[in-house]
Amino acid sequence: MNYSAHTDTELADWLRWASESGKAPSFVRALAEAAFLADSPNYALLRPVLLERKRQMPPVAQTV
To answer: Is the N end or the C end of the chain the one with fewer CB atoms within 10 Å?
Structure first.
């Protein structure tokens, strides 16, 4: 399946969090930014890494 950072329902919210959050380490922010810039074949290469990073680092819940 052809995914992109914008259309990947499993990762889109996490990628936004990772790229915009000050709580994500710089390496994770860089991966998220690369995902947003990647074309479909390169996103397919990044996706397994992104899924693993999401598993290891879920978004920090915001408190109200």
So the answer is: C
Report yes or no: 59 and 22 within 8 Å, Cβ to Cβ: no
pLDDT-based confidence at residue 10 (cuts at 50, 70, 90): very high
User: Which residues does 21 contact at the CB level (< 8 Å), separation at least 6?
Assistant: 29, 59, 60
Model pTM score: 0.85
Residue 43 burial (C-beta neighbours within 10 Å; 0-12, 13-18, 19+): buried
Determine whether 58 is exposed, middle or buried from the number of CB atoms within 10 Å of its CB (0-12, 13-18, 19+).
Answer: exposed
* End-to-end alpha carbon distance in the chain: 37
How far is 38 from 58, CA to CA, in rounded Å? Answer: 22
